[in-house]
Fold this protein.
Amino acid sequence: MDSFGRHINYLRISVTDRCNLRCQYCMPEDGVQNLGHGNILSLEDLARLARIGAQVGIRKVRLTGGEPLVRKNITGLIRCIADIPEIDDIALTTNGILFPAMAQDLKAAGLKRVNISMDTMKEERFAYITRRGGLNQVREAVFKALELDMHPVKINVVVIRGFNDDEIGDFARLAYDYPLHVRFIEYMPVGDLLFWNPDRMMSSQEILDRLKSDYELNPEKAVEGNGPARYYHIAGGAGSLGFISPMSHQFCSECNRIRLTADGKLRGCLYAKQEVDLKAALDRGAYDEELQELFLTAIKTKPAHHEMNSGWGQQNFRKMYQIGG
Ligand code: SAM
Ligand code: SF4
């Protein structure tokens, strides 16, 4: 329990700050200074910290980044985490580019579920927003995950007014046709903010209102995976729609997560500056008991809620790919 009575059982691990895309809202095109070898947690350390987390109550682990699939031997890490008896759920958030070629091995290593980010289904737009391209691989990733039964397969769509808001209906159609859980995410002002503009943020309510004229949406109980999304079943459809509303609706009172950054800092909140330095402790040879105490410190100092709505333009704030989205 943290100091506000929330039961913290979910650890998001950023395994790298590197990425094979450069999404406009997440990473700058140039001047990305990646962590060097000595500053990044080794796979052994990551596995050890997952085990320590399990000892203080963590039951679910999600690997993210940066792009987690660019980290060497990620399947080895998944295997180690899958061997921790207390951990009953291992998931991955990926941009999907490398997923088709790795999917089988990831599943065999113990990966249960996958969230794939896909903000647009139009090739040109995809190349623009990611500054790289590769929509075909992402599409392939979605169908591969379905084929391998990695349910629930979730699609993350950051809705940006003037960029992809005209595709909201197309994404709903995708969830109608296939057993996919499409989650519309409110655009958040994190990172360099070069692309950020408050007018580009579309609230979940606005998205929902637009969809209601074409689809009958019925509120659903949470889909397995414990995310903060509100889900709706589409009448007659195969999948569901989710709305993640960090901007318009704080879900902090239900937040059950802590985050480990690739450079070994444990954070209670995506948007708070407090971090507990686990890497320093590992480097000086800390015993498990000390690491457990540090986990508990991060849990106890988890803030009651984020301050994203009052902090437009915090320039010194660590970026999404550095913290792990
Ligand atoms: N590279 C992987 C991916 O893109 O799925 C994992 C890391 S990425 C930082 C995790 C999620 O954060 C993605 O779904 C991405 O769209 C989302 N994200 C990044 N920047 C965001 C922002 N400014 N507002 C809302 N969501 C954001
Ligand atoms: Fe990379 Fe994911 Fe950030 Fe896009 S959202 S730049 S894929 S880390």
Summary: The CA atoms of residues 100 and 297 lie 39 Å apart.
